[in-house]
Write a structure and sequence with these properties.
- Helices cover 47% and strands 11% of the residues.
- With 205 residues, the protein is mostly helical.
- The chain has 2 domains: 67 residues, Orthogonal Bundle (Helix Hairpins); 103 residues, Iron/manganese superoxide dismutase, C-terminal domain (minor pseudopilin epsh fold, 3-Layer(bab) Sandwich).
- It has a 3-stranded antiparallel β-sheet with strand order 2-1-3, sandwiched between helices.
- It is globular.
- It starts with 21 loop residues before the first helix and ends with a helix.
């Protein structure tokens, strides 16, 4: 029976320094993400036909999951999918990091300016109460900024996340303690806009 696997990081644990520290990356990937994946697989064992779908398809059709395991699948499947995307859309940091081409034009068209997009995204990320994520997502080909609590997924809303920031405390507390705003500010240099643009071009229609 096929099971879901935690993807390897596409870079070394210390590759995102000084913005995200090596210890946080190691614990976040090797402990938190692995646990989500393990518990996701365990939950699906009682409905094994779901292993024939992608994790994203399962979350997008969450109401077809048996009620007895639905919460576990939502929580742990969301954690598995969201973290896999999170690793993919980051890379070693660089200053003045921003997208180009069609994605940048779409951001400007939707949010007026690059700077206003950054401000709006940071505000949404700051106002996640407790644990959750802030996302740049596509809905019917249009960009939106949204937030989800815990591991609730944009996929379950019919949305396609292009990139997101994890604002669970485990994502930043070792380095930033309670300074979520500083963590969000230091997220911008490490976004892999090439990957985000690939997703935009793939899912915009």
């Amino acid at each position: 029976m096929k099971q879901f696997k935690t993807p390897d990081l596409p870079y070394k644990y210390n590759a995102l320094e000084p913005y995200i520290d090596e210890t946080t990356m190691q614990i976040h990937h090797d402990k938190h993400h692995v646990t989500y994946t393990t518990n996701f697989n365990n939950a699906l064992e009682s409905q094994p036909d779901l292993f024939n779908k992608s994790a994203e398809e399962i979350l997008a059709d969450i109401n077809q999951v048996n009620e007895a395991i639905r919460i576990a699948v939502k929580n742990h499947g969301g954690g598995h999918v969201h973290h896999a995307l999170f690793w993919e859309i980051m890379r070693p940091g660089k200053k003045n990091n921003k997208p180009s081409g069609e994605l940048l034009e779409a951001i400007k068209q939707t949010f007026k300016t690059w700077e206003s997009f950054q401000k709006d995204f940071a505000q949404i990320a700051m106002t996640v109460f407790g644990s959750g994520w802030a996302w740049l997502s596509l809905v019917d080909g249009k960009l939106i900024i949204e937030k989800t609590a815990n591991q609730d997924s944009p996929y379950s809303l019919g949305h396609t996340p292009l990139m997101g920031i994890d604002v669970w405390e485990h994502a930043y507390y070792l380095k930033y303690q309670n300074r979520r705003a500083e963590f969000i500010e230091n997220f911008w240099p490490v976004i892999n806009w090439d990957k985000v643009s690939e997703r935009f071009n793939k899912f915009k229609y």
